[in-house]
Amino acid sequence: MTAPIMISVAHSSRSIGAVSPHGALTEYLISLRASVAAFRCLAGEFPVELFDVGPEPSISYDDLKVDRVNSCRPLLAVEIHCNSGPAGAQYSETIYSGPKSPAKEPAAFIAAALRDGFSTIYGKRWPSRGARTDDRGLFFLQRTIVPAVIVEGLFISNKEQSEWLGESRSDGAGAEHYGVLVATGIKNWLRSRA
Predict the structure, then answer these.
(1) CATH classification at residue 73
(2) Host domain of residue 31
(3) What total of structural domains would you count in the chain?
(4) Which of 175, 171, 144 is nearest to 161 (CA)?
């Protein structure tokens, strides 16, 4: 059996996460919706697993997540986040562990899918920083022993993007569209390997 793609929900519903008017639960729910959408988009065509630590406190959710990813030994682990930052920040980016990481190529495919999808499908002029190496020592990338990518798709601290993601809407459609774009990048990478 082929190793699966692991989709990991960022943070837990009790972790700090990105800054938003509604706290950690908002980012968790957006990440959960996006992750489930990515999982559904890949399922049936490629082996895929979804991992969610749920309401675990932040002191243990990182360890649980990394332990699960490392024990599963996926072909690629992808963690879907929302970014936060200064007013007006609006770019997407993907982050992988280092310049020689085997995750560099899938990170580039996911970054391209976000860039192209936001502009051509949704008509959004949201720039992309593309794929870049981890310069902050991010826990998930430093502790996983498999190729891993963190996706920072949109800024939850940007009013337009947070509304599109569904922070103030009940349908969560934007978050689901975000997840589909991530899955599109993963599919494009997997097909390029065939």
Answers:
(1) 3.40.630.40
(2) 5-193
(3) 1
(4) 175
Q: Tell me, what's the pLDDT at 19?
A: 54
pLDDT value, residue 62? 78
Write out pLDDT tens, residues 35-55.
999 999 999 999 999 998 876
Number of H helices, E strands in the chain: 6, 6
CB atoms within 10 A of CB 60: 11
Its pTM stands at 0.91
Own/partner pairs, 57-66, CB within 8 angstroms, 24+ separation: 57/12, 57/14, 57/15, 58/11, 58/12, 58/14, 58/15, 58/16, 61/11, 61/12, 61/14, 61/15, 62/139, 62/140, 62/143, 65/8, 65/140, 66/139, 66/140, 66/143, 66/144
Asked if residues 95 and 149 have their Cβ atoms less than 8 Å apart, the reply is: yes
Q: Is the pLDDT of residue 11 over 90?
A: no
Quickly list H helices, the chain.
24-42, 58-72, 104-116, 139-143, 159-165, 173-193
Radius of gyration of the chain (CA): 15
